[in-house]
Every structure is written in C-alpha cells, then in structure tokens.
Amino acid sequence: MINSSLIQNLTVEDLGLLDAETLTSPACIAKLVELTQDSLFDLEPGQARDFYENLNALLSKYSETLKNNPQIYNQLFIILNSVMWKAISALPAQVRREALTHNVILALTNNVNTRYYLQKYLDAFEFIIGPDMENRKALARFLETNDEFLGTSMILISNKEKAQPLVKNWLTDYNSYSQFNNIKNTRGHYEQVKYLSTSPNIQTLTKTEQTVLFKLIELYDWLLFPGQIRTNIPLVNELPTRQVSATPTATPILANESKNTPQPTNLAPAPKPPAVAPKTEVKPPSVVPLAPPPLARRSNVNLQDILNERMDSRKSGGVVWDRQPTNVDLGEVKKNVEQKRQETEVEIVKKLEELKKRKTSV
After folding, report:
1. Whole-angstrom distance between the N-terminal and C-terminal Cα of the chain?
2. Domain ranges across the chain
C-alpha cells in the first residue's frame, strides 16, 4: 500500500523507509524531483552526497522489481544521475571518474549544469591561484575515454576511419577538425561552431543530439582551455528550474548494450544552446572637418582674369614673384628696393636741374 503521508513529508533521511510500491508511485517520483531541485543540494555538496548514497542504496535494494518497469526505472535513474552531479565535489575520485566516463550524455541531455558542479570541485584547487591544469587535464582524459553512445550511425574519424558514435570518438574527430590557437593557447566558441557546421558526421545526428554534442565539446574545451576562472558559470540562483508535475516525463538517451548497468532510452528533447548575440561594434563619432567660408560669387567669370589677379597680388616693392615658389632673402629684397628708390630720386633731381637751366637760358 502506498504511504501517502510519508511521500508528502519525505526527506533525504526518510528514503530508507520507502517500500517498492511507494517508491514507484507517480507521487513519490514527483516528490523526488522536487527534492532534487532544492537549492540546498547545489550549495551543500555534502547534503547532496547523502541524498545520492541513500537513493542509490534504495535503487539497488529494489533493482529486480524496478527492472520489470523500465519507464519508472529510467525516471529514477535520471534523478539519481542529477543528484550525483550535484554531489560530485564531495564524492570519491572513483565516482567522479565514473561520472565522466559513463554518465555525461545523460546529464547533458537532461540539462544538468555539469560545468557548474565540476567548478565547485575545482574551486578547492583553483581559488585565488588560478587554473589547476593537472586536475583539469585528468578530467578531460576521463571524457576522452567515455564510451557512451551519441547517435546511432557510424562516424568517420578525420574522414578516414569508421568508428562507433561514442563520446571518445566524437572528441577524437573534434580534435582533428579544431586545432587550438597555438599563439593564444585557446580554443572556444568559434572552433566549436565551425566543427558543428563543417564535419559531415554532424549530419548523422538529430537536432537534439547535435545540441548535446555542442554542450559536450563546450565542457571539454572549458576543461582544457579555462581562460578566466568561472567565466560564464551561472550562480545557483541562475540555474534552470523545472516545474514539478505529478507524472515526470523526462527520459534518458539511447542505451549502451555493452554495459551491465541498464541504460535509459527514449531521449527527451534538450534545449538548443543559447544563441550568441552578435557583438555590436561601437564606433566613435566621426570628426567632420569645418568647411571653409563660401567664396563670393562672380558674374561672367573669366579664368584668365582670376590668374592675373593672383599674379598682381604677388607684386611687392617692384618685385614680381615667379609662378613657382622660390626661396627669397627678404633683407636683400629690401636693400634692392631702397637702392632703386634712391636712384630714382637722384634721377628726378637731375631732371629738375636740367629743366631749370633750360628756363634760364630762354
């Protein structure tokens, strides 16, 4: 019999009191989803660890019963996966490795902010001193060995070798297409978008799977090329929230049949990656030079008259300037002008003396 009172007041500590019938009821699953979305587990990885361990023990206890109802099992597995990522910084190293090698695609498909929770783990090593590349590369190597399926068709690695659509093969193909910037030692959004738009393997994926692949390579590049720590990582109050319904409909991705652990099926559509708004280049206001004052209008303008005026304006002290500019010693010019003036005066005096002599002779 379903214990409705226990469900209504369910806490992490009470998980062990649930029986199989109560656990698999829609009301109990809705309550577990509600607990998962409590911000306490985002802020306190230790509390999330208790939630994860208790729920994991409960699913192991009723595993045989749950296998007879795959839909319920898948919903509970999604909840367990989400709680595991919230607790990732407080869990043993082996669980972190398991999360990155076997449980990334499920998390990305269901919009778990894996970057945020990995950053909480890395904060212990990176606070103040900057990126801990040794830890980051170790986490990236776990991704490079991930054998989760993403897609159903074979892919060509570097357009040559056929391979299964596993995460590790997708990352190998991405690395062959998108070399990082050797000068700045970076790789980011430009290379990610270029790969998604040029690799022929992308055509084998659905739109939902392409979105998941975009999130995957974003996570991978963030580990290898961190840049500024905590860039674009949302705060807890910015994390996406979901409406809690009586019958949760989230379903996981395609199963990997080579694994003993049952994998979820029936992929739930994941939201598209946020569109990047184009950067608007702010240009400084252009400087417009002041226009010279308008010239007075002339009537019956004659080009030759204008040239003559300009030549007349260049006449000074009896000296006419050439059309081409020359280097002129102004002192010498003044001296020549004064000499010519004196010579002219002497000449005038002589002329006057001659006139007087002519008058007296007459």
Report:
1. 163
2. 4-238, 331-362
Residue written as tokens 């050797």?
182
**Residue 315 bridge partners (DSSP):** 320
CB 168 within 8 A of CB 147: yes
User: Per-residue DSSP letters for 37-104?
Assistant: T-THHHH-HHHHHHHHHHHHHHHHHTHHHHHT-HHHHHHHHHHHHHHHHHTGGGS-HHHHHHHHHHSH
Identify the residue whose tokens are 């001296």: 335
What pLDDT digit, counting tens, does each position of 110-169 carry? Answer: 999 999 999 999 999 998 888 999 999 999 999 999 999 999 999 999 778 899 999 999
Q: Retrieve residue 233's tokens.
A: 């990582």
- Give 9-31 pLDDT, tens digit per residue: 999 999 999 999 999 999 999 99
Cα–Cα dist 194/78, whole Å: 32
Q: Is the pTM of this model over 0.85?
A: no
